[in-house]
Amino acid sequence: MSKHQKELDRHFAWFEKKLPPGPARFVGWVRKPSSIYVRVPLAILLIAGGFLSFLPVLGLWMLPLGLLLFAQDVPPLQKPLALGLGWIERKWLERQRAKLERERAKSAQ
After folding, report:
1. What residue spans define the domains of the chain?
2. Phi-psi region for residue 57, left (φ > 0), alpha (ψ -120 to 50) or beta?
3. Which of 32, 49, 61, 66 makes a 20 to 30 Å CA pair with 16?
């Protein structure tokens, strides 16, 4: 297993922890190697739905989720997605820290 695959697995595990139990089980099942015949068509549908985000119900959120699922089976996508998710995670943590510091400064006044 490549380091990029491990990084994607870490991000998926984080994502599964944030979901309610039912959807988390579904995501865990879709990620299993035996679910490739469900995962690939689902990924393609999510990517297509992301491109059709101007329509009601469909949204841009579908595109990255579809790419993540697709990257499970397409190794050339693993590195860019792992790097992108790492960047997003760092920015998210920076925002959280800045928010906490602002709240602390505000309460200290």
Report:
1. 16-73, 76-108
2. left
3. 49
What are the pLDDT digits (tens) for 30-69? 989 899 999 999 999 999 988 888 878 778 888 888 888 9
Tokens linked to 26: 């579904």
Dihedral sign computed on CA atoms, order 27, 54, 84, 80: positive
Q: Could you give the CA distance from residue 100 to residue 68 in angstroms, rounded to a whole number?
A: 30
Collapsing DSSP states into helix, strand and coil, what is residue 29?
helix
Give the type of residue at 74: V
Report how far residue 86's alpha carbon sits from residue 101's, in angstroms, rounded to the nearest whole number. 23
Among all chains, which residue has been given the structure tokens 């309460």?
107
pTM for the whole thing? 0.74
| Nearest alpha carbon to residue 4 among 93, 92, 76 | 76
